[in-house]
From TrEMBL:
Residues 487-497, 525-540 have a biased composition (Polar residues). One of its GO terms (molecular function) is transcription coactivator activity. It comes from the Eukaryota. Keywords: Kelch repeat, Nucleus, Phosphoprotein, Repeat. Residues 544-633 form the Fibronectin type-III domain. Residues 447-499, 520-549 are annotated as: Disordered. This is HCFC2 factor. It is found in: Nucleus. One of its GO terms (cellular component) is histone methyltransferase complex. SMART domains: FN3. GO terms for biological process: chromatin remodeling. Gene3D superfamilies: 6.10.250.2590, Immunoglobulins, Kelch-type beta propeller. InterPro entries: FN3_dom, FN3_sf, HCF1/2, Ig-like_fold, Kelch-typ_b-propeller, Kelch_HCF.
Length: 749
């Protein structure tokens, strides 16, 4: 929603405090210490159960080998596993809060947590090596390499009369302190900065730094200023990399402004930066607090799940895929079994004045609502948070090339995309995207929670409903074949064919209804132009009678979608010259969707789909390919809104009737994927047994039938059902439902 809210908390609500320690462990938050008022510091520990917004004051046991931590502020409080690590801070030596006598600390404590809620107590670990010097307002993070090594805590910077920029390392397993040697340019001495770990990098932003241009460590009474400089430390190579320098000019406020005492949090591969104060104004005799929110995308997003089919008609698909956290949109592409002719005469270039284009090989900074110039740091692209949620309209503009690097050294077949966005009449922001692995600061986007089916043992049954997303799958007919895959609230499976059998017949269906090397050419007479992706053909295009050789398959853009679903009835055709772009000329021709013609989908045609997520760093890798087929006119559609309800000794399947051109449904058939020796020879070809045939829109599946069920492991373990309808023409496409199984259930099958 991109909105702040103030929760109604209850319980032992702590007093307001500053410069406290704060860690998040699942749905609970622990807060330790801080300044309650000037000169009066705290050593209280509070726990907030965020699931209930309940505060609780916690009283941990004192250490067996010393005293508990004294009241302090500016300490570090870091979580790893079931332990918090407390280091340093600033204490007041005077008992009179009005007479502040500062004492810098370098003591080190370990706090053991109880699972879920509560703590065990403090302990003072016995460490080896030289302790870091006393300090406050430093940062501490914990990092553990995935392949080798033990977890290590890194302490950087801080204040002890003057600012520091030293780096310390603690091996948590051996409790040994050391000072690692680093490469690159070390950031200026600073305090009240932030440090966050994403991947193998520690990102350091802001803080108080020396006023002098040379960056020398000033005397205690030297001049200091807030900074907006930004660097990261590669924790595997201990090399510092500068992203935004302290002296970099930012007259147009295109970057997060200088600040100290702000907060920063990593969510996945995205870093959020909020608030802080931007220095001391002597003329005003106060400090100015910031109220802006920024985020940094540090790498391109992961590949989404396979595209899943909810519903198919003769000329459209309703599709979905699993959400990818913290992305701006999704690029959906298709290619058809039948070749699609290129369109001659469409300009291959032309960027509207309202679009924002990320320049190849350079840095591109963006801020809504206007485009921004490049800056000398090629590692960064920045956007200020937008105040609207209209981030990705469906007719966003895309730059096309025959091939491009998607992630690292990996390349994906043509065409790939560098993405820009045009400004809509009813939208007030424009977001640019850059094909790069560089970090990028962009506007905040929203995402909704994912849900998944939750089922237990089939014979240990409680009443439970599952509302699956329906999909067209292989037709249960001898005249038409369709294989499509759909997961119920999970990733879709992928099969190349299916075997359907009942008491009297055993039939094999393949996913391709035409020979692999030949296909019919789609006529180009039914071509529309427009801005929307959801128009439908009123009349089915006619195929020419003669088959021709299929040329190399091309991927065509369906569009860019803000959400993880789409209704597809058309796709964009590419100019002929675009199909021959040399892969080395990446971004040479940039196409405007508004200048492209659209091609309608054809009945009875197999289309393959893939989807990629987009964030500020560009387009991520594409998903695995899914294959779906449009319906043939005259046949009934696929049943929808399938529900699975468990009872004591069976399960109950129900569904909604599909549309039928004649208005009549003669019967329904339900099928169950069963274990078979044929599956061992070809695991991708499921074998189905008919378990119901009748007029009702529901059926019972007995425990005896379920005992023969095959558990499909192509994505998450699931039992597969298919349901289809029949009219005067025959059976239409089947709805495939994957009923998720837990490991215990699937292991028993």
């Amino acid at each position: 929603t991109n909105q702040w809210f103030l929760p109604a908390v209850r319980g032992d609500i702590p007093p307001g405090c500053a410069a406290h320690g704060f860690v998040c462990d699942g749905t609970r938050i622990l807060v330790f210490g801080g300044m309650v008022e000037y000169g009066r510091y705290s050593n209280d520990l509070y726990e907030l159960q965020a699931s209930r917004w309940l505060w609780k004051k916690v009283k941990p046991q004192a250490p067996s080998n010393g005293s508990p931590p004294c009241p302090r502020l500016g300490h570090s409080f870091s979580l790893y596993g079931n332990k918090c690590y407390l280091f340093g801070g600033l204490a007041n030596e005077s008992e009179d809060s009005n007479n502040n006598v500062p004492r810098y600390l370098n003591d080190f404590y370990e706090l053991e947590l109880q699972h879920g809620s509560g703590v065990v107590g403090w302990s003072i670990p016995v460490t080896k090596g030289i302790l870091p010097s006393p300090r406050e307002s430093h940062t501490a993070i914990v990092y553990c390499r995935k392949d080798v090594g033990s977890p290590k805590m890194y302490i950087f910077g801080g204040m002890c009369g003057c600012r520091l920029n030293d780096l310390w390392e603690l091996d948590i397993e051996t409790m040994t302190w050391s000072r690692p040697e680093t490469k690159g340019t070390v950031p200026l001495p600073r305090s009240l900065h932030t440090a966050n770990v994403i991947g193998n990098k520690m990102y350091v932003f802001g803080g108080w730094v020396p006023q002098s241009a040379g960056g020398e460590i000033s005397a205690p009474d030297g001049e200091w200023k807030c900074t907006g400089s930004f660097s990261y430390l590669n924790l595997d190579t201990t090399e510092w990399i500068g992203l935004i320098s302290d002296c970099q000019e930012d007259k147009s406020n295109l970057l997060p402004g200088p600040r100290a005492g702000h907060c920063a949090v990593a969510v996945g591969t995205r870093l959020y930066i909020w608030s802080g104060r931007d220095g001391y104004r002597k003329a005003w005799n106060n400090q100015v607090c910031c109220k802006d929110l920024w985020y940094l995308d540090t790498e391109r997003p992961l590949a989404p799940s396979q595209v899943q089919l909810i519903r198919a008609t003769t000329n459209s698909f309703q599709l979905k895929w699993d959400e990818v956290p913290t992305v701006e949109g999704y690029l959906l592409q298709l290619h058809a079994d039948s070749p699609v002719p290129p369109v001659a005469g469409i300009p291959g270039t032309g960027i509207p004045e309202t679009s924002v284009l990320s320049l190849q090989g350079g840095c591109s900074l963006h801020q809504s609502p206007q485009s921004l110039p490049s800056v000398p740091y090629p590692e960064m692209k920045v956007d200020h948070p937008s105040q609207t949620n209209n981030l990705i309209p469906n007719n966003v503009q895309v730059a096309l090339s025959s091939s491009s690097k998607v992630e690292g050294k990996e390349k994906v077949a043509a065409p790939e995309n560098k993405v820009t966005q045009e400004t809509m009449k009813n939208h007030t922001d424009a977001t640019g995207f850059k094909e790069s692995n560089a970090p990028s600061l962009l506007p905040v986007c929203t995402s909704s929670a994912q849900t998944s089916g939750n089922v237990g043992e089939l014979h240990d049954l409680d009443k439970q409903s599952v509302n699956p997303d329906a999909s067209v799958s292989s037709t249960v007919s001898s005249t038409q074949t369709m294989v499509t895959q759909q997961a119920v609230k999970t990733e879709s499976s992928s099969t190349n064919g299916a075997v359907v059998k009942d008491e009297t017949s055993l039939t094999t269906f393949n996913s391709k209804s035409e020979a692999a090397e030949t296909a019919y050419v789609m006529p180009s007479t039914k071509v529309n132009t427009g801005q929307t992706n959801d128009s439908h053909s009123s009349r089915a295009p006619q195929r020419p009678p003669a088959p021709v050789k299929t040329r190399d398959r091309r991927w065509y853009d369906v569009g860019i979608f803000k959400s993880n679903s789409a209704v597809v009835s058309q796709f964009y055709l590419l100019p002929e010259e675009t199909l021959n772009i040399n892969s080395k000329k990446e971004g040479a021709d940039v196409l405007d969707y508004r200048l492209l013609k659209k091609q309608d989908l054809f009945p009875g045609t197999v289309y393959r789909f893939r989807v990629a997520a987009i964030n500020g760093c560009g387009v991520g890798p594409f998903s695995k390919i899914s294959e779906f087929k449009t319906c043939i006119p005259g046949f009934p559609g696929a049943p929808s809104t399938v529900k699975i309800t468990k009872s004591v000794d069976c399960i109950h399947l129900s569904w909604e009737p599909p549309a039928s051109p004649s208005g009549n449904i003669l019967e329904y058939s339900a099928y169950l994927a069963i274990r078979s020796t044929q599956l061992q020879e070809n695991p991708s070809q499921l074998v189905f047994m008919r378990i119901y045939c009748g007029l009702k829109t529901s059926c019972i599946v007995t425990a005896a039938q379920l005992s023969n069920a095959h558990v499909d492991y192509t994505s998450r373990p699931a039992i597969v059902f298919r349901i289809s309808a029949k009219n005067e023409r025959g059976y239409g496409p089947a709805t495939q439902v994957r009923w998720l199984q837990d490991m215990k259930t699937s292991g028993s099958k």
